[in-house]
Write a structure and sequence with these properties.
Elements: H1 7-13, E1 20-22, E2 25-26, H2 37-51, H3 56-59, E3 60-61, E4 70-71, H4 80-97, H5 105-117, H6 119-125, H7 127-142, E5 147-150, E6 172-177, E7 180-187, E8 198-201, E9 216-221, E10 227-231, H8 235-238, E11 256-266, E12 270-273, H9 276-284, H10 288-318, H11 324-349, E13 352-354, E14 357-359, H12 362-387, H13 404-413, H14 421-435, H15 438-449, H16 454-464, H17 467-479, H18 483-487
Parallel strand pairs: 1-10, 5-8
Antiparallel strand pairs: 1-2, 3-4, 6-7, 7-11, 8-9, 9-12, 10-11, 13-14
Helix pairs in contact: 1-2, 4-10, 5-7, 5-10, 6-7, 10-11, 10-12, 10-14, 11-12, 12-15, 12-16, 14-15
C-alpha cells in the first residue's frame, strides 16, 4: 500500500457499476467514455500530485488511528498555523487544475470538516444520528474519499413551497423500516458526481414545518442501487483537441441532476431525520457553510491569478502592454487579484477559536463571496476588452496546421513581437477556452451563482456584519453635542 491515495487507485474505484446517462445512453465505464475520461484522469492527477514524495508533507497528514496519510482537506485546524498549513495544501491542489475544478475533492471534504466541528448540533438532534455522522466522517477521511453533494432542489414552480411541487420532483422520504429509509425524487447540482466516490444529500435551502418528508441528510456511494445520474452536455467530448481546448478537454467536471429512484438509505448513513430546522443547522449552526465557502475562496484565488496571467500574456501577444491605458487596466486588475488574496489572508488572520478549532472570520468570508461574484465577470470582460478581435481571428482547429498551404498562411498572419505564430495561436486558443467557449461561459455562470444569487450572499453578509460597532460610532458622534448646548453656547 502506498503512503497516500494515488490516481490509479481513485480511477479504479470509479469502475463500480454506477448509473450515468449522457446523450440518451447509459455509460458503461466513465473512466473510458469520451465525455468523461480526461476529467477522470485530471481527478486522478490530484491524487498523484499529493502522493509524490516531495509533496507528501505539504499535501497530507495522518488522521488519528490511521496508518495512511490523507489530504489535508480532511484536517480540522486547531490553530492559525494549522489553518495556513491546510490552506497552502488546498492552493497547491487548485494549481493543478488552475482553479477550474470547482468541486474538486477538497470542497465537500471542507464542508464535512466544518460540520464535524459542530457535532453537538447533531447530538441535540439525535445521539444516533450524531454517531452516524461522526462514524461516516472518520470513514470518509481515512479513505480519502472524493465526495460530491446535492443540497438544492430542482427549480420548478417557485411560487409554491417545496412540499407543494409535483409528485416525485423533490427528493423525499417515501418509506422506512428497520433497515433505514427509502427516498425518491431529484436533487441538484451534482457537479463532479461522475468523478466522485460518494454523494452527500442534504438541504441548504430552508424548509418549513410540514415538510418533514423532505428533511433528511445522508451520504451514499454513487453506485447505490436506484441512483441515476443525468449529466449535462459534455464540453470535453466537444473539444477538438488539447491544443484547441486545453481547459475544457481536461477539466470539465460535469454538472448533473441526480434522481433517487426508491433508494434505500441505511440508518447508519442517515445524519438528519425529519427535522426541518436541523437541516439548516447542519450548515449554518456548524462551521460547515463557512469551511465549504472558505475552500471556494482558496480555489478562486488561484483561478483569478491565472486569469490575470492570461490578461498579461494577451497584451504581450498582441503588442499592447506598453500602451498607457492597457498598463492601467492591467494594474487595476492586479489590484483586484491582490484584493482576493488579501481577503483570504484577512479571514484567516482574524479568525477565532470555536471550541478547540480555528475557524475563519465568517463575515470576511461572506464579504469576499459577495465581491468576487461581481469580480469574476469583470475579469472576463476585461480580458475580452484587451483582446479586441484577436480571440476571433484564429484557425478553425489544429487540423489547419496539417495542410502546408494553410500553415504558411497562418505563419504569415498570426505574427507577434514576443511569440512565434504557433505559440500565439496556442495561447489565444487557451485564452478563448477560459473566457469565451461554452466551457468558459459555464464557468462565469458558476462563479456568479455557485454560492447562491446575490440576495442570498448579500443576506449572509448583512446578518454577520458587526452593525453595533458601525452604528455605535455614529451614535457616539451624535451624543457628543446637542442643539440646546449649541444654542446656549456650551462648548465640548
Amino acid at each position: 500500500m502506498t503512503v497516500a491515495k494515488t490516481g490509479a487507485e481513485h480511477i479504479a474505484s470509479l469502475r463500480d457499476g454506477r448509473t450515468v446517462y449522457i446523450d440518451g445512453q447509459l455509460v458503461p465505464d466513465v473512466t473510458t467514455h469520451p465525455a468523461f475520461r480526461n476529467a477522470v484522469q485530471s481527478a486522478g492527477a490530484l491524487y498523484d500530485f499529493q502522493a509524490q514524495p516531495e509533496n507528501i508533507e505539504l499535501m497530507t497528514f495522518k488522521p488519528e488511528g490511521s496508518n495512511r496519510r490523507v489530504n489535508r482537506a480532511w484536517q480540522m485546524p486547531r490553530s492559525y498555523d494549522e489553518m495556513i498549513q491546510r490552506r497552502k495544501a488546498l492552493q497547491a491542489w487548485a494549481n493543478v487544475h488552475y482553479g477550474f475544478m470547482g468541486r474538486s475533492p477538497d470542497h465537500v471534504a471542507s464542508a464535512l470538516v466544518g460540520q464535524r466541528m459542530g457535532i453537538d448540533v447533531f447530538r441535540k438532534h439525535s445521539p444516533d444520528r450524531a454517531k452516524a455522522f461522526a462514524d461516516y466522517f472518520d470513514y470518509a477521511a481515512k479513505n480519502d474519499l472524493f465526495l460530491t453533494y446535492v443540497i438544492i432542489n430542482p427549480q420548478a414552480e417557485r411560487a409554491k413551497d417545496w412540499s407543494q411541487q409535483a409528485d416525485n420532483l423533490v427528493a423525499r422520504i417515501v418509506d422506512e423500516d428497520s433497515g433505514g429509509i427509502t427516498i425518491r425524487g431529484a436533487k441538484m447540482l451534482g457537479t463532479s458526481s461522475i468523478l466522485a466516490n460518494e454523494v452527500l444529500v442534504a438541504n441548504l435551502q430552508p424548509l418549513k414545518p410540514g415538510e418533514e418528508d423532505l428533511a433528511f441528510s445522508c451520504a451514499l456511494p454513487i453506485n447505490t442501487k436506484g441512483i441515476r445520474i443525468l449529466s449535462r452536455k459534455s464540453y470535453e467530448s466537444s473539444a477538438v483537441s488539447i491544443f484547441d481546448n486545453p481547459l475544457s478537454s481536461r477539466f470539465d467536471e460535469n454538472d448533473a441532476l441526480i434522481y433517487f429512484d426508491d433508494v434505500k438509505v441505511p440508518w447508519d448513513r442517515l445524519f438528519v431525520y425529519r427535522d426541518t430546522d436541523v437541516c439548516r443547522q447542519q450548515f449554518h449552526d456548524t462551521q460547515g457553510h463557512s469551511f465549504q465557502n472558505y475552500q471556494a475562496q482558496i480555489r478562486l484565488s488561484v483561478k483569478i491569478k491565472f486569469l490575470l496571467g492570461l490578461a498579461r500574456r494577451l497584451t504581450e501577444a498582441i503588442g499592447t502592454t506598453k500602451i498607457p491605458s492597457v498598463s492601467e487596466k492591467l494594474g487595476y486588475m492586479a489590484a483586484q487579484a491582490s484584493m482576493v488574496e488579501a481577503m483570504l489572508s484577512g479571514m484567516e488572520a482574524s479568525g477565532s477559536k470555536v471550541g478547540e478549532y480555528w475557524v475563519p472570520n465568517k463575515h470576511f468570508m461572506y464579504s469576499a463571496q459577495v465581491l468576487t461574484q461581481d469580480l469574476y465577470p469583470q475579469f472576463v470582460n476585461s480580458i475580452r476588452d484587451l483582446s479586441g478581435g484577436a480571440l476571433i481571428m484564429l484557425p478553425s482547429s489544429i487540423d489547419d496546421f496539417k495542410d502546408p498551404m494553410l500553415k504558411k498562411i497562418i505563419h504569415t498572419t498570426q505574427r507577434a513581437a514576443a511569440m512565434e505564430p504557433e505559440d500565439k495561436v496556442k495561447f489565444l486558443k487557451a485564452c478563448w477556452d477560459a473566457v469565451g467557449s461554452e466551457f468558459g461561459s459555464r464557468h462565469q455562470q458558476y462563479e456568479m451563482f455557485y454560492a447562491g444569487a446575490r440576495f442570498v450572499t448579500a443576506g449572509h453578509s448583512f446578518r454577520t456584519y458587526d452593525w453595533n460597532s458601525a452604528t455605535g460610532a455614529v451614535d457616539s458622534l451624535l451624543s457628543s453635542y446637542s442643539l440646546a448646548d449649541e444654542l446656549n453656547g456650551v462648548t465640548h
